[in-house]
Amino acid sequence: MGVVLAVAAWSVFGCRPEMGATVSGLVSFDGQPAPAGVIVTFQPQVPNSSASTGVTGPDGRYDLRFNARLRGVMPGESVVMLALAEDVADVGAGKRKPPAIPPQYGAKSTLRKDVKPGPNVIDIEIETARRP
Fold this sequence. Notes:
The chain has 132 residues and is an alpha/beta fold. The chain has one domain: Immunoglobulin-like (Sandwich), CATH 2.60.40. Helix content is 16%, strand content 39%.
């Protein structure tokens, strides 16, 4: 019986191309598409949930994934965090650069987005301090 339940669970959850909800969108800085390499993380505000992450392409668009094989994000409210790929690498190497992304969108982000079940398009507009 346990094997049957495990196989049934795997067939329902293990091979689905996406789960719960999907999120894609455009990240822009001061009205311009973000450069390639901006890491977008949605951390659901549900206990024991995993974050979903995506990286912007050259057009500023992102698509969230649970992991390399599984698209999606948990539905509900998420904290949205942004980081530049080179900032993450520099921190790992022990270097510190001033962040190009304002701190309220980084590790202590105040940005929240509501993710509905099914497909979602969530564009993220960032106003930087250096804007005239």
